[in-house]
Write a structure and sequence with these properties.
alpha/beta, Rossmann fold, 6 strands
Length: about 150
Amino acid sequence: MANVLVITEHMKGEFQDISFEMLGQARKLAAGGNCCALVYGSMKDHSSELGAADRVLCLGGSDDFNPEAYFSAALQVIQSESPDLVLVGSTSMGMDLAPGLGVSLDLPVISSVLPVFDGVFDSGIWFFILGAMIGVFAILGTMLTEATSE
């Protein structure tokens, strides 16, 4: 059992899809523990949309993203709640928050997590891997050709 905190994201009065995706994963990772969502500004009025969360922690402040204000608010919540895991989206907002939170809390930050087994064959990652392999072989072939022609 784990206690998982999700830092939600919103824009123009609506939660971003990444918030729901993280809450779904948090529910699985919690495995019977608590799944908690952190919301900012007026999004507290929309907390009922976060059905996967056992609790919603509402912070005041502006709806407009301010890295310093959001960072300090998130840091205070994390320090007081002591979750086992904090999920932050791999977005521009998440990239602003996660490194500072990791350093301040002396915790590792793991970014760009991709599913490894769940639906991996349906994923576009194989095209990336294939492209990278072709690129590497093309470079090696060129190097070998140039080395043997001298």
